[in-house]
Amino acid sequence: MRLIRSCLMMLEYVLVLSAYLFSIGIYGLITSRNMVRALMCLELILNAVNINFVTFSDFLDNRQLKGDIFSIFVIAIAAAEAAIGPAIVSSIYRNRKSTRINQSNLLNK
Questions:
Q1: Helical H runs in the chain?
Q2: How far is Cα 41 from Cα 43, in angstroms, rounded to an integer?
Q3: What is the mean pLDDT of the chain?
Q4: CATH code for the structural domain at 2-96
Q5: How confident is residue 5, by pLDDT bands cut at 50, 70 and 90?
Q6: How many beta carbons lie within 10 A of that of residue 39, not counting itself?
Q7: Domain ranges of the chain
Q8: Are 12 and 51 in contact (CB under 8 A)?
Q9: How far is residue 100's CA from residue 97's CA, in Å, rounded to a whole number?
């Protein structure tokens, strides 16, 4: 009984941490005006989601690694975003001389 209670407390702490990270990422993504900051907040959101996947995979069923595999898939997507995102931002900066989101209307030249 004591072990179950401690596992539930640990689950609660990890989920609260993940919720804080996700909330900070969403707030930063909504309020950021800089593209680099928006990319960093997007990475924070993806890491919070990964924490949830791994936590629930470990807590609900240890034999099936569906949450862990999906977390690795999300990490691969985040790595691609981390490689392509700064390249796009630097290209926009070279053309527009600004990385502010509200100043870069890509449909108008």
A1: 2-31, 35-60, 66-96
A2: 5
A3: 82
A4: 1.10.287.3510
A5: low
A6: 19
A7: 2-96
A8: no
A9: 9
